[in-house]
Every structure is written in C-alpha cells, then in structure tokens.
Amino acid sequence: RLTGEQKYKKMLLRAADSLATLFDERVGTIHSWPGMRQQKGWPHNTIIDNMLNLELLFWAAKNGGNKRLYDIAFSHAEVTANNQFRDDYSTCHVVVYDTLSGKRISQLTHQGYADESSWARGQAWALYGYTTCYRYTKDKKYLDQAQKVYNFIFNNKNLPEDLVPYWDYDAPNIPNEPRDASAAAC
C-alpha cells in the first residue's frame, strides 16, 4: 500500500497461502503448533495468538488471493469464539481439539500463569483479532465479541491505573509481577 511495489503484495499473498496450509477443516481452525502432536500428544491445538493472523487472510482474500482465505479466517474466528473463551470473556491461551470430531478436548495455557488464568497478551490478541474481524466482515457479532473482551480487560480489578497490565491478570504476586507493554499497546 505504501510503496506500490507488487513484489510485496506477492509476498503477502504467498504468506497467506502458506498460513492456510495449517487450517484443519475438521476442526475449523488454524493449527498453531504441529510439533505439539508429538511433544504433548495434542491432536490439534489453536492458540489465541492466531487471531492476529486472520488479518492477513482477510486482506489476501480481498486483494487478489483465493476467496477461500476469507472462509478460513471466518471459520477460525467462529470456532475460537465458541471454544477459547470462558463465561466472563477471559480467554485461555490454548485449546486442544479432537481431529476426528472437531470437538474441544481441553483449555489450557502455555504462556499464562495457569490453565484457568487470564494471560494479558492473550486478552489483547483477542481484542485486536475480533476488532479486525469486524473491520473486514462488518458482522456485528465480532464487534460484540471485542466489546466483551474489552469489558473483561477494563473492568478487571487487577488492571493498574496506568493501563499497563500485569503479565497475567491472575498472577499470584500482584502488584509485584512483571508488566506487559505489548498487551497495553493493543
């Protein structure tokens, strides 16, 4: 967009096609860490971080890429909304899925404090990702999802006044926990 150089557009379209190879139709999400099949016995795992990748797919579908990329991004957003969130709209970091039924096996963390805790960066990825989904689809359900995540963040008793969250909203030593400027930037 900034340079007009077609070589950059081609690279982005190629990157989107590469990302799409990780999509599993049986589950409906992009597989995050294929190596975890062997290492942890997870048939298919999806991390909340993948919400940031959907922008590439939506953009590519709109800018000369395969229209299937849009469908992959849409499916990933839908399945993630239904499986990655808890009742209070906090998100778990990882969801493990059964590749035969497509059903969720477990919600856990790989980078947060605990499986039941709310990793600050994961909340930020969810907020950014669902806002992006709304921007590309204009589907109000994504804006509603982003608003619910926003409410979780900004109504959280452990969000400091300066709005730079602790690395995990449930870390045990708040206020003596590291902060996460990346989450704050989102």
Task: Tell me about this structure.
The chain has 186 residues and is mainly alpha-helical. The protein contains 7 helices and 5 strands; from the N terminus they run αββαβααββααα. It has a 3-stranded antiparallel sheet, with no helix packed on it. A two-stranded antiparallel sheet has the order 1-2. A hairpin with a 6-residue loop joins β4 (94-97) and β5 (104-108). α3 (54-62) packs parallel to α5. The protein starts with 5 loop residues before the first helix and ends with a helix. The mean pLDDT is 97.
Summarize the structure.
With 186 residues, the protein is mainly α.
What are the salient characteristics of this protein?
186 residues, mainly alpha, three-stranded antiparallel beta sheet
Mean pLDDT: 97
Secondary-structure element series: HEEHEHHEEHHH
| SS field, number of helical segments | 7
Termini separation comes to 22 Å
Radius of gyration: 17 Å
Biggest sheet, open or closed, and with what strands and sense? 3 strands, antiparallel
- Give me the oligomer status: single chain
Q: What is the helix fraction of residues, given as a range?
A: 40-55%
Share of residues in strands = 5-15%
What spatial order of strands do you see in the largest sheet?
Answer: 3-4-5
Structural class: mainly alpha
